[in-house]
């Protein structure tokens, strides 16, 4: 196990390097002079030169890359071009918010999607299948922002059950924190719920016809043991792949959700940095997203390894 | 077990498994079809009954009916009786049937490569069967699983118990399936083409194993196969099925010596001589001209008549011939068996 994880991890290092180079270069080719952005249009040539000197913009490209990479590796992502505050601080403050909301969204997706998929798969063509499939399809087709606004209207404005905006940190008040992230997570999680449902349904319908499920029945196992231990357990393997893809997709949706619910998460950072052309912030966010996707892939491999013994041979 | 005439006698006492007039139907989109139509047989302890017939003749459906494993909502036992040690199994609620399945009646299948769940060790899969039916601890079940692996001839059983199915060969996996089937000392083992798809030496080993296990435990075996070479090796009695019906049944020697039903003769024509062990491929039953009819539209009269060389218009084409005793419990369903055999009626 440790060897497998280490191998996978080492295998990612070249990819990590390519990503840092890519991120760095993209920022280089973007139009705009960082020094002028910082100082504004009225800056004197002398002060511009001074800022360029301070930022190392006169150095050859590879030197700039290396010094940037060195800083990134020590956790220094540079300073915001807007207010000169450290980017890493802003990211560290937004990270838990986004992780909590997206994590909860995935949990909600799984809690709805997996049971619905199992019900649909074990009653193909019958009422349970119809209802579950309908719910799944609804989840996929409803736009997240629309659900978000509808929920705001019903649960915050009308019923007053849930806070409409803002965030409370988990460490400050877990319950309030949960309440604040609930609606954003539902809005984000419905689509994955529908996708998980359809995936579990389709893979489990096949598995339930398989020879080994017949063997499990022939052993005299109870229906639920056949379904859960032999049917669902092997159907989980394709779910892991989709889970990682959907998580990456969730990260893309946080801009809208953070804006609607006023969450101080990654979505807000992205929105603001684009609005204000904060290049350092954008660069760091792109880097973090790429790292997140890589980390998720590594995690997926590890979960695969745990779920499917056949992988060990490869 | 054989009497003076060389035929297998009917064993005394009640049979372990007795199937009488079994009718199994499927409701499909295109309507209802009768996959098994009035099949009866008796299976005695320590005896092996082989069921042969072409693909689609209803062999598997018969065995799934006995196991209570017909596809839910589609398949049902329309009538007939299945008795295990005199106890009626048809109409038993699922909970009660579950206690029979895997405990009193166990089953192994044709596809050893795919019949084990890929994500659990074989030891766990055997232990699971034991834990389902016996009130023992996990540890004891594991130990018993290793014992069983040893019994079915798997070397280094303690090590193999921790292997996953994909780490074992087809023959090994079929041994594991047999270990699962034997885990609760069943009275009846149903083997649905357990050696099809395995290579010949492995086939022979599996047959040897089944014979040895039967000798030790006295279980009855219902052995389904395409392969008359295998029948000759393992069966005491043979039941020949055609289009969901029993068309001939006899002791194995009698059947091979004097097959009565032209269909059985046709099957043998396509198989190596009895006694000679089967060669791969050669033993498939394909040589009879024409195809087995769909159970949806069976020919009137004897279902085999369109393919039969002895067919007589009127005699074979109108009424379904009854199952007649040709002597010594040799049953045959053919209107013309006396003519064909030269026996005066
Ligand atoms: N699930 C099902 N739904 C509808 N019809 C079925 C189903 N299973 C079997 N049948 C029908 O029952 C008939 C008998 O099938 P069965 O599987 O018992 O044949 P078999 O003798 O075991 O053949 P094989 O040698 O190919 O295994 C076939 O005509 C088939 O069409
Ligand atoms: Mg079959």
Automatic annotation (TrEMBL), chain A:
Transmembrane segments: 9-30, 101-122, 134-158, 178-200, 236-261, 281-307
Gene Ontology BP term (one): transmembrane transport
UniProt topology in membrane: Multi-pass membrane protein
ABC transmembrane type-1 domain segment(s): 95-300
Keyword Repeat: no
Keyword annotations: Cell membrane, Membrane, Transmembrane, Transmembrane helix, Transport
Subcellular location: Cell membrane
Listed Pfam families: BPD_transp_1 (PF00528), BPD_transp_1_N (PF19300)
PANTHER family found in the cross-reference section: DIPEPTIDE TRANSPORT SYSTEM PERMEASE PROTEIN DPPB-RELATED (PTHR43163:SF6)
Protein name: ABC transmembrane type-1 domain-containing protein
From TrEMBL, chain B:
InterPro entries: AAA+_ATPase (IPR003593), ABC_Ni/Peptide_Import (IPR050388), ABC_transporter-like_ATP-bd (IPR003439), ABC_transporter-like_CS (IPR017871), Oligopep_ABC_C (IPR013563), P-loop_NTPase (IPR027417)
Segments forming domain ABC transporter: 17-268
Keywords: ATP-binding, Cell membrane, Membrane, Nucleotide-binding, Transport
Membrane topology, record value: Peripheral membrane protein
GO MF annotations, alphabetized: ATP binding; ATP hydrolysis activity
Listed transmembrane segments: none
GO biological process assignments: peptide transport; transmembrane transport
CDD domains with a match to the protein in the record: ABC_NikE_OppD_transporters
Source species, domain of life: Bacteria
Subcellular location: Cell inner membrane
GO cellular component, one term: plasma membrane
PANTHER family hit by this protein: DIPEPTIDE TRANSPORT ATP-BINDING PROTEIN DPPD (PTHR43297:SF2), OLIGOPEPTIDE TRANSPORT ATP-BINDING PROTEIN APPD (PTHR43297)
Family named by the database record: Belongs to the ABC transporter superfamily.
Full protein name: Dipeptide ABC transporter ATP-binding protein DppD
Source organism per UniProt: Rhodobaculum claviforme
């Amino acid at each position: 196990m440790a060897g497998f994880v280490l191998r996978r991890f080492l295998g990612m290092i070249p990819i990590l390097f390519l990503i840092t180079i890519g991120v760095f270069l993209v920022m280089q080719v973007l139009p705009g002079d960082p020094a002028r952005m910082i100082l504004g249009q009225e800056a004197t040539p002398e002060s511009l030169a001074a800022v360029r000197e301070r930022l190392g913009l006169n150095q050859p490209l590879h030197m700039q890359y290396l010094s940037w990479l060195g800083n990134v590796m020590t956790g220094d992502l540079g300073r915001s071009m807007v207010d000169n505050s450290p980017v890493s601080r802003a990211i560290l403050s937004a990270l838990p918010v986004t992780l909590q909301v997206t994590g909860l969204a995935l949990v909600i997706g799984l809690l709805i999607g997996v049971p619905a998929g199992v019900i649909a798969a074990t009653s193909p063509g019958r009422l349970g299948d119809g209802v579950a499939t309908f719910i799944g399809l609804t989840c996929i087709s409803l736009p997240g922002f629309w659900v978000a606004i509808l929920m705001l209207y019903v649960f915050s404005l009308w019923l007053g059950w849930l806070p409409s905006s803002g965030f409370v940190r988990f460490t400050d008040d877990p319950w309030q924190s949960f309440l604040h992230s609930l609606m954003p997570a539902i809005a984000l999680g419905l689509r994955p719920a529908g996708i998980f449902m359809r995936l579990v349904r389709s893979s489990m319908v096949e598995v339930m016809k398989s020879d080994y499920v017949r063997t499990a029945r022939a052993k005299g196992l109870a229906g639920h043991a056949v379904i859960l231990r032999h049917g669902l357990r092997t159907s989980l393997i394709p779910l892991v792949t989709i889970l990682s893809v959907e998580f990456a997709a969730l990260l893309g949706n946080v801009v809208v959700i953070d804006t609607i619910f006023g969450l101080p998460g990654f979505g807000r950072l992205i929105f603001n940095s684009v609005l204000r052309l904060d290049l350092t912030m954008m660069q760091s966010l792109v880097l973090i997203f790429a790292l997140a996707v890589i980390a998720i892939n590594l995690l997926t491999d590890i979960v695969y390894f745990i779920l499917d013994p056949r992988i060990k041979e490869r | 077990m054989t009497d003076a005439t060389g035929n297998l006698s009917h064993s005394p006492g009640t049979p372990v498994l007795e199937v009488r007039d079994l009718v199994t139907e499927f409701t499909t989109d295109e309507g209802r079809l009768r996959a098994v139509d009035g099949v009866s047989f008796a299976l005695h302890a320590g005896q092996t009954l082989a069921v042969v017939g072409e693909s689609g003749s209803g062999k598997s459906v018969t065995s799934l009916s006995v196991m209570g494993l017909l596809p839910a909502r589609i398949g049902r036992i329309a009538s007939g009786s299945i008795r295990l040690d005199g106890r009626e199994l048809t109409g038993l609620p699922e909970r009660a049937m579950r206690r029979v399945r895997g405990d009193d009646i166990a089953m192994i299948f044709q596809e050893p490569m795919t019949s084990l769940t890929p994500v659990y060790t074989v030891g766990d899969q055997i232990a699971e069967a034991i834990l389902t039916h016996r009130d023992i601890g996990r540890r004891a079940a594991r130990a018993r699983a290793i014992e069983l692996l040893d019994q079915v001839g798997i070397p280094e059983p303690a090590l193999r118990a921790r292997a996953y199915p994909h780490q074992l060969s087809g023959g090994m996996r079929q041994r594991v399936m047999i270990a699962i089937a034997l885990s609760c000392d069943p009275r009846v083992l149903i083997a649905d083409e357990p050696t099809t798809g395995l290579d010949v030496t492995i086939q022979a080993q599996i047959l040897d194993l089944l014979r040895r296990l039967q000798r030790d435990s006295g279980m009855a075996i219902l052995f389904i196969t395409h392969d008359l070479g295998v029948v000759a090796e393992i069966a005491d009695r043979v039941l020949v099925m055609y289009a969901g019906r029993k068309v001939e049944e006899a002791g194995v020697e009698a059947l091979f010596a004097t097959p009565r039903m032209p269909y059985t003769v046709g099957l043998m024509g396509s198989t190596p001589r009895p006694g000679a062990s089967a060669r791969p491929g050669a033993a498939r039953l394909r040589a009879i001209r024409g195809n087995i009819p769909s159970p949806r539209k069976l020919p009137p009269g004897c279902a085999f008549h369109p393919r039969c060389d002895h067919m007589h218009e009127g005699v074979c084409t109108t009424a379904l011939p009854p199952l007649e005793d040709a002597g010594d419990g040799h049953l045959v369903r053919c209107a013309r068996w006396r003519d064909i055999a030269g026996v005066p009626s």
